[in-house]
């Protein structure tokens, strides 16, 4: 495989089943974060740029600008397809890691019970998002048509998963905090509900990682 080899080990030598279980748990947590946080973040970035460029195309008569942006947008959509493909690939890896963890945990339990009959063993819980019981969360900042900030705010507050929204001064006119059960549902809500609101000119999405 091409690429530069690291000069040091990332994971120390695994010398027991107990260590193996802990390492697999950490690896599972890492892949979960990569899927739910990193890939979702860059997916949102690409979608935000597409949304902004589309509105720029619709708002200009400059053919050079329209032509350039129209050429860029398909590339951005291709980036999203790559990110989705990466997500599916990492999900397969995560499923393997979870399966390996269960296998190693069962072996660890057997070993401990042989060495310490009657010992109470506590299950190693499967990875959960590190923000406690919180659901995937994003902040969406919006610019609106002049004088329509309050209208956008009112419409946002009608959307079920918008937990908080407020008017702001500065570059953006409205900021919303949105939560959903999964990262996929969160993205769908932002694309289909928030960006589709009347009088929203552009958006910037920030996916919360912790």
Q: How would you briefly describe this protein structure?
A:
The protein is an alpha+beta fold and 210 residues long. Helices cover 55% and strands 13% of the residues.
How would you characterize this protein structure?
The protein is of the alpha+beta class. Helices cover 55% and strands 13% of the residues. It is built from four helices and four strands; from the N terminus they run H-H-E-H-E-E-H-E. The chain has helices at residues 17-58, 63-115, 149-156, 183-194; strands at residues 137-144, 162-167, 174-179, 200-207. It has a four-stranded antiparallel β-sheet with strand order 2-3-1-4. The chain is elongated, with a radius of gyration of 23 Å. Mean pLDDT is 82; it is low at 119-133.
- Total domain count: 2
* Biggest sheet, spatial arrangement of strands: 2-3-1-4
Structural class: alpha+beta
Return residue spans where pLDDT drops below 50 for at least 5 consecutive residues. Answer: 119-133
**Relative helix content:** 40-55%
CATH class descriptor of the largest domain = Mainly Alpha
Largest sheet: 4 strands, antiparallel
Count of helical stretches: 4
- The name CATH uses for the topology of the largest domain is Four Helix Bundle (Hemerythrin (Met), subunit A)
For the termini, the CA-CA separation is 33 Å
CATH architecture of the largest domain: Up-down Bundle
State mean pLDDT (0 to 100 scale). Answer: 82
What is the H/E string?
HHEHEEHE
Please state roughly what percent of the residues sit in beta strands, choosing from under 5%, 5-15%, 15-25%, 25-35%, 35-45% or over 45%.
Answer: 5-15%
Which radius of gyration do the C-alpha atoms yield? 23 Å
Q: How many beta strands in the DSSP annotation?
A: 4
Assembly category:
single chain
Which word captures the global form?
Answer: elongated
